[in-house]
Specification:
The protein is mainly β. Helices cover 10% and strands 31% of the residues. It contains four helices and eleven strands. The longest helix has 7 residues, at 6-12. It is globular, with a radius of gyration of 17 Å. It binds the ligand Nc1nc2c(c(=O)[nH]1)N[C@H]1C(S)=C(S)[C@@H](COP(=O)(O)O)O[C@H]1N2 and molybdenum atom (MO). Residues 29-33, 77, 111, 113, 115, 144-145, 157-158, 160-163 line the site of the ligand Nc1nc2c(c(=O)[nH]1)N[C@H]1C(S)=C(S)[C@@H](COP(=O)(O)O)O[C@H]1N2.
């Protein structure tokens, strides 16, 4: 009797879980444009700022008291590694925008350390994006973005900003760090939107 679990087939036989041009990573690579910022939980805050300059801010204690979810998702880095079935815990961006009045088109993620990346607001809503603070059942390690990072798994992983400090809601989309250096404004891995103009 041939019993092949779905998970096994997905990883070894059938490539449908992998976007074009991607291969499976066996480890969890660390990709950071600069040094790892160390942010103590005492000084950590997360702020949503609207296009009308209204702000909603959470301390760490307030943030981890928000309703959170466990999620298992595939991640795809533009440098061509993918990792399937990664486990996280975090707060849906829907929860964070719940009582925020906005008609913004996009959001700029701002990070401790200065990194930025832009995402259309529609891609952060509808159960598609989270601010996560645990990986594999443990506090998110600093090198992977702890205390907390954005997780937008349906876009290339550079959109999943580590050491997240806030979301700035924008009336008009504008490029973040990698986007202004030639990477794609949107970054859909299934369409191989790696660079500007693709
Ligand atoms: N603040 C910050 N976030 C970041 C980055 C960064 O350099 N700084 N790199 C991005 C890139 S290019 C990738 S592929 C992922 C890597 O996350 P990892 O180091 O946890 O694998 O983080 C993204 N988020
Ligand atoms: Mo990346």
């Amino acid at each position: 009797m041939a019993v092949i679990s779905r998970g096994f087939r997905r990883r070894h036989g059938d490539d449908t879980a992998l976007p074009p041009g991607q291969h499976l990573a066996t480890d969890f690579p660390v990709l950071s444009a600069g040094p790892t910022p160390r942010v103590s939980l005492d000084e950590w805050t997360f702020t949503v700022t609207t296009e009308a300059a209204e702000a909603r801010r959470w301390t760490w204690e307030e943030f981890v008291a928000l309703p959170s979810e466990e999620l298992t998702v595939d991640i795809h880095c533009v440098t061509s590694w993918s990792k399937l079935g990664t486990h996280w815990r975090g707060v849906s961006v829907d929860v964070l925008l719940d009582d925020v009045r906005t008609s913004a088109a996009a959001a700029m993620a701002h990070c401790y350390g200065g990194y930025t990346t832009n995402v259309p607001l529609a891609d952060l809503r509808g159960g598609q994006a989270w601010v996560v603070y645990a990986y594999d059942g443990k506090p998110l390690p600093a090198e992977h973005g702890g205390p907390a990072r954005l997780l937008v798994p349906h876009l290339y992983f550079w959109k999943s900003a580590k050491w997240l400090k806030g979301l700035e809601l924008l009336e008009h989309d504008r490029p973040g760090f990698w986007e202004s250096l030639g990477y794609h404004m949107y970054g859909d891995p299934w369409k191989e939107q790696r660079y500007h103009g693709q």
